[in-house]
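Can't attach files on this board, so I'm pasting raw text. These are the components:
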Amino acid sequence: VVRSGAVGEVVASRTDRYRAGDMVSGLLGWQEYAVIDGGVTVLPPGTDPLVAMSVLGATGMTAYFGMTDVGRVGEGDVVVVSGAAGATGSVAGQVARRKGAAKVVGLAGDATKCAWLVAELGFDAAINYKTEHVARRLHEECPDGIDLYFDNVGGDILDACLGQLALRGRIVLCGAISSYNEQGRPKGPSNVYNLIIQRGRMEGFLILDYFDRFPSAQAEMAGWAAAGHMKHKVHVVEGLEHTPDALNLLFTGGNTGKVIVQL
Amino acid sequence: VVRSGAVGEVVASRTDRYRAGDMVSGLLGWQEYAVIDGGVTVLPPGTDPLVAMSVLGATGMTAYFGMTDVGRVGEGDVVVVSGAAGATGSVAGQVARRKGAAKVVGLAGDATKCAWLVAELGFDAAINYKTEHVARRLHEECPDGIDLYFDNVGGDILDACLGQLALRGRIVLCGAISSYNEQGRPKGPSNVYNLIIQRGRMEGFLILDYFDRFPSAQAEMAGWAAAGHMKHKVHVVEGLEHTPDALNLLFTGGNTGKVIVQL
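---
Top answer:
Structure tokens for the assembled complex are below.
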């Protein structure tokens, strides 16, 4: 069974911790029925499963802890997010705004996504990395440099952000999807030595390390969501048999927002 | 005048802060006489000018703050230092040992330097990067990964250390001499995404930011030096007219220890 986060309904239980009818969230995998022995969270009655899967799920938590704990986002920061129309990036930009960022710039791969970032999610600017000159546009949007870059893609965009880093800038390495399907060794960022001149920090993380801290983060995020500050979009694909196609959307960029397979 | 650290004798003074005969240390430049208006430290009477220039000078301070403040070296760490026979690297390895590192491995470019690191400076192992397969040797010497890599060179050695990083490993970017004379853009490290898997941190720094904290560091370092724990070697070149040749030693690797031009 391929591992993945999921929300499901308990159909039968031999433990007091879960009751038939409970909605639970956890690593249930690509399957219609799962036999588990704990490791899932019972959702409050009435939680929208699509919200549970997106803003309060692993991708939302990734955005939250990457921005706050790793990136130390703070008042006045100029923040750039790549993969900004994706499940993690779209939340990351909104977390930055909630935490007092002065400017939030998103990178996405088509005009519709870019328009959505600015019009709906409150990003200050969006850059279409497929049609615009990324380094030049970053220089225009962040003339005094990037304080915090939340990297979901790696590759040339990471390199461009390294080149535009502000003094004591931080780069949060969350994913490198641009390199996952590359043949041979990926090209490294040649601007990496700019970290010396700018006294910059680049740090990677995995959300697995933050499971214990999910509840307090989910409470804060749920509050923002209830106040209308945590917009999200889900891209629902129907049927387990279409899961490989759904996964592939992440590589083609065919999705806007969290990709969810509904069974 | 080319900027550089130097130690000199005050020959005349119009201020009470310095008196003729004082030995002072600071950015005096490539020249025989300098007219200054402060910005230098008066050395205690009797300080060996060569120690003032090396262990207690900018390169020694770079080693100290890079290891402690940026790298957060601690008990039990497996530490790797490149440019280990150089002015900064040789001190960095010894600072790591003083701070409780479990193992200190140095990289240098010839057998004599490697022997010196182990026999004289107390490194546990040395790797000759010109004759040995660096990634394989790092894997042998650090089978459980590198907790802290102090990088003086960048390039392929940085890439190899990224590939062998331990969980929560740190990389201190101090210099990238391998790239300074490169034509075009330097090649970036393709293992940079290993920072995600290992939750690693890579951070650059400049010693200029630490001037205010030199006195306490110099006191600690002077104590280690007095106890015989801070060995150093200086490579003295005679005559201001040979300064360009002396600088070039840093690029050819012809030096062992701090290069000092004596006037």
